[in-house]
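Checklist before submission:
- one chain only
- standard amino acids only
- sequence pasted in full

Submission:
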Amino acid sequence: MKQLNISRVKIPFTISIMVLFLWLIGKSDSSASPLSEVVVSDLNLLTHFYEDTTDCNDRNTNECIDYLSEKASELFRKKPDEAYSIGEQLVLLGETNNLEICIAKGKEVMARASMNKTVNVSSFRMAKEALDYALKIKADTVYLDCINILGLGHFRKKEYHKVFQYNQMGLEFAKKANIKDRRLRFTTNAGVILLKVGEYDKALKYFDEALNLSTTNKESIQLAKLHMNKADLFYYQKKYDLAEREISTSLQVLDGFENQLIETEANLIRGKISFEKGDLLGAKNYYDKADKLLVNWQDYKRLAQVNLGFSGIALKSSKLKEAEKYALIASKYSNTSNYNNGKLESSKLLHQINSHLKNYERASKYLLTHTHLLDSLEVAENQTKVRIKLVEMNLKQKQDQAKAEERINKRRQNFILYATVFLLLILVGITLIIMQNERKQRVLNRSLYVSKMELEKQSLILSQSNDDKSKLFSIISHDLKGPMNSFKELVKMYNRGVISKQEIDMFAPQFENKIDGILLTLNNLLTWGKNQMGGIKTEPVNINLHDLAATNISLLSEIAQKKSIELVNQLSVKSNAWADRDQIDIVIRNLLSNAIKFTKENGVITIYASNMNDKWQVCVQDSGIGMNEETVARIFNDDSSFTTYGTKGEKGTGLGLMVCKEMVLNNKGDIWVDSKVGSGSNFYFTVPKLIP
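Returned file contents:
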């Protein structure tokens, strides 16, 4: 952290300190809030710093700032407005007395208080302003704390890849600045994020590294939390003995300290382990202890976990009504705290309970909720894993580039050193030596230029490869893995007797549509992947658009008939084009298939073409549900990947449209859409005419 350069700050600073505390006392009401009690009880301690002196030195200034920062930290969660006020006064105090570190700390306190109160654009802007100011004055610890605040904001928005990105930035800075306590914090946080997205082996490495860093740290609560994090990790890996060992170690470290959160976590993990081992009595005992610890707390996430435990135990004991009561409470708490795993588990339990109660309609509703939630959570987790991997790869790339630049600089420095020594030793023939050195310099510059160009080329190739992999992984997880996992889950539940044949029959009409969608998606994915790898060559020939449309209408007629949709081919029999037959065939089939998905029963889909000089402008027009402006803007965006559902629950992914776009571009055409909600959609693409 930047050292304060204060030689002698006279009476004005002392007056500012007293005004600050008089303001804090005046801010409190007559009922003496906790803040006012703190200020009054410690006012003598602060004024002691200044009693027998008319100036302020570095020591008592830092003590005052630390004292106010500590008081603000006690208020961040429960009274963020009061913590924010302390931050404002620190900024005012710093500006009045030209103390940069005081301003930086005040901005950081204000940003943290704002982020604890509400995560919005304003709180992120304040955190970035505090970060920039701290970096400007080289206040290293404040700068790292601001990085932590930004990570906290993205954590609450469940943007875990951005949390990981800020965390890695903070970790690298803390290592270089050798700030051990912040390095410990970021190392621990990295493990927590990786644990949350299921990267258990990587998370374990960070936790072990954090434990090594904390051997010289006397914060027993921090050590206890680390061991509890490892216990949670081992539970998810089903290494129950190791999890029990870490819980015991955590509680031993905590001996003499009181921490309700760690004790609650210990009982929750032990409850889950006992339940998995079939010890229902032991599990209930641990959940009861956790429930008592959470009395008068508004920790809805952990309350949801307790009630999920009670519900599971009651279900195992065939106490169905009791199990349903606890599952509904868990669902309520999970929705209140936006606890996705709680929502998933409670919907699964409610499905099982209602199946046993023979409430098949309600059971089916909860099964649908569970299946859709499982699908979306898996997609989100896989996308987060890919994005975290990209962060790691980009960090590795930057590190490699830095090492390469360091090697180049070292070579340059060594050359300059050798050249200088050589010039000093050889005084005779100075002209010849200069000429030789100039030649060597040119050779070296040429070598450095070649090395730089090679590095830039490799960086570009790696960046493009990363983008392609990210897009491909996201599409695979979204378009294939999610639906297949849903089918797998249904089959698993049927084999285990969780759902009945009657319920399977209820879902049977949807199976054919889903399988058709998966097959079309697979075909599009293979086409897209082959095109990305340069395996598709565009070979234009004379094609008749009317014939291509007729062939695809024939192929899709059965699907259209199921929804009583009329397919109309208004393309001219003379609409000849100069394009790749297979690629335009794929475009027409995808556009017709999409139109069928999003057109209601008894609708009409028409394909026609307009004469545009040297091109045909083909249009697939439907009378479907249409799209809003946001969807229209995103639909042909290369960076966009989203899922929609047709009028009969047919799943669409956007992959087909991506393939259409690439095929049309391959044939020197354009593609776009015109649509309004409730008024259908018109998908247009152009293709070159056949020139006689």
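Reviewer check: The longest strand covers residues 604-612.
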